[in-house]
Design a protein that fits this description.
Elements: H1 2-8, H2 12-21, H3 28-39, E1 44-47, H4 54-65, E2 69-73, H5 80-83, E3 85-87, H6 89-101, E4 117-119, H7 121-126, E5 135-139, H8 146-158, E6 160-163, E7 167-170, E8 176-181, H9 189-193, E9 196-199, H10 205-215, H11 221-234, H12 245-257, H13 265-271, H14 279-288, H15 290-295
Parallel strand pairs: 1-8, 1-9, 2-5, 5-8
Antiparallel strand pairs: 3-4, 6-7
Length: 300
């Protein structure tokens, strides 16, 4: 895998350019972290507030490498079977019935073969044939529990899993592993030791404007500046959920669709639901005043 990565992205500059071509404007620190994850190689743990582009970074990296993005969305109660594999019981029962109709005898081993195996994300990534590696995105690992972290440690260490009925499955082309966390809980030190680490912060104003204008073509720099300034002001308020990049893009898209050229209180009021997804947050902003939200944007 490292040889493939070396040919595709020989240095950080080429990786940054390739990410940029796919619409992902990464800061130098993130580019370096992604480059090292490819070339060392090591799993990369990305932490940051919700909506700063952690998941999109993995998607963009998969686009650069040309391999599939395999995503495992973590949640409370996630177990190894859901992440790794399950047996297709319905198909096994059908196989048994067909054998009975034909008068054939099936051994137990006949029912536990590749034909009846349902690959879940981790096994799918490990068995990707290449030559380009898959990108295994383990999204919001902080939502999973301790037992799943322990299972994950083994997979990351060996790039292999053991299926009792079949044997050990080892990756011929190890996947690039990207883990994301919103830091709702602390991860175990053992898992962190296996990974490179990078914190993704909200983009600085100039880069945010470039990002949203890239995603909403045709919008003016002035309106994008005003939207960016308004979002920065919101992040200083005591709201439940600060808007991320995705919400900022949605807001600019809505304003552009309505033909808004300058961010006025009336336009902000009409489109606030694209930016703030909690009623309490919208009420707080209205109480503080929509003039406060948009007024300083022209002075930023």
């Amino acid at each position: 895998m490292s040889g493939f990565a070396e040919a595709r992205v020989p240095d950080t500059g080429s990786l940054r350019h390739a990410l940029d071509e796919r619409g992902y404007l990464a800061d130098p620190g993130l580019v370096t972290a992604l480059f090292l994850a490819l070339r060392l190689p090591q799993p990369l743990l990305l932490e940051g507030e919700s909506g700063v582009g952690k998941t999109e970074a993995a998607k963009a990296l998969a686009g650069v490498l040309g391999g599939p993005l395999v995503r495992l969305q973590c949640h409370d109660g996630l177990d190894a079977a859901e992440a790794l594999y399950e047996w297709n019981h319905a198909r096994q029962l059908l196989g048994i019935r067909l054998a009975e109709v034909r008068g054939e005898r099936l051994a137990e081993t006949d029912l536990f073969t590749e034909e009846y195996l349902l690959r879940r994300p981790v096994l799918t990534a490990l068995t990707h044939p290449g030559p380009e590696p898959a990108v295994l995105l383990i999204d919001e690992i902080d939502r999973a529990d301790d037992d799943f972290e322990a299972f994950l440690l083994e997979v990351l260490a060996e790039a292999a899993v053991t299926i009792p009925e079949i044997g050990t499955v080892r990756a011929l082309v190890p996947p690039v592993v990207v883990l994301t966390s919103n830091r709702t809980r602390d991860l175990h030190d053992a898992l962190k030791r296996r990974c490179l680490y990078h914190w993704i912060d909200y983009p600085e104003p100039e880069r945010l404007v470039r990002i949203v204008r890239r995603r909403v073509p045709g919008t003016s720099a002035g309106l994008a500046d005003e939207v960016s300034a308004a979002v920065r002001r919101l992040r200083t308020a005591e709201i439940q959920k600060s808007p991320g990049i995705a919400e900022t893009i949605d807001w600019l898209s809505a304003l552009a669709l309505l033909g808004v050229r300058r961010l006025e209180p009336e336009a902000a009021a009409a489109t606030l639901g694209t930016l703030l997804k909690y009623r309490e947050d919208q009420e707080l902003v209205r109480e503080r005043g929509l003039d406060w939200l948009v007024g300083s944007g022209r002075d930023s």
